[in-house]
Amino acid sequence: MTAINDFIDNEVKTNDVVVFMKGTPQFPQCGFSGQVVQILDYLGVPYKGVNVLADDDLRQGIKDYSNWPTIPQLYVKGEFVGGCDIIREMFQANELQQHLSEKGVPVKGAA
Amino acid sequence: MPMNAGDIEKLIRKGIPDAEVHIRDLAGDGDHYAAEVIAESFRGKTRVQQHQMVYEALQGNMGGVLHALALQTSVPEK
Q: What are the entry keywords (chain A) (predicted)?
């Protein structure tokens, strides 16, 4: 396992909710990353943002780790949940709120 | 070299032969599209798995040449 893979694996396993994104939660640098951050903020979910722009190995490593070609990528309790499209679709269908609650993640405003 | 809607549709159909594909060009710049893909072979799969099937059909263009593809996958109503 490469160093970058260990780093990713550790981030995914030690944070309940972590989103690998372009930019930071305060300053998303891509519309899609910004959308996922907006949804998480709206739900009041505590999460960690990892900026893949800070390191090219990380930017490619995360795509290999999940076999998913795009950024952002959301992980809940060590499990890849989806990219921007899936998170938005799940949010609109209230599935994201259910998924988070099932995983024991506190969600504010769960309809 | 950006992709055109026809290329995307052909690749998805080749990778998922039973797929019904609708492509919408979002920005006219060759790399922002929305695609709706309906296929029986998606049945029983999670959204992530369905999207991964489409990305595999796109043979690595996704995330490279193709920057943004808003993807919606579903199974045909019975």
A: 2Fe-2S, Iron, Iron-sulfur, Metal-binding, Redox-active center
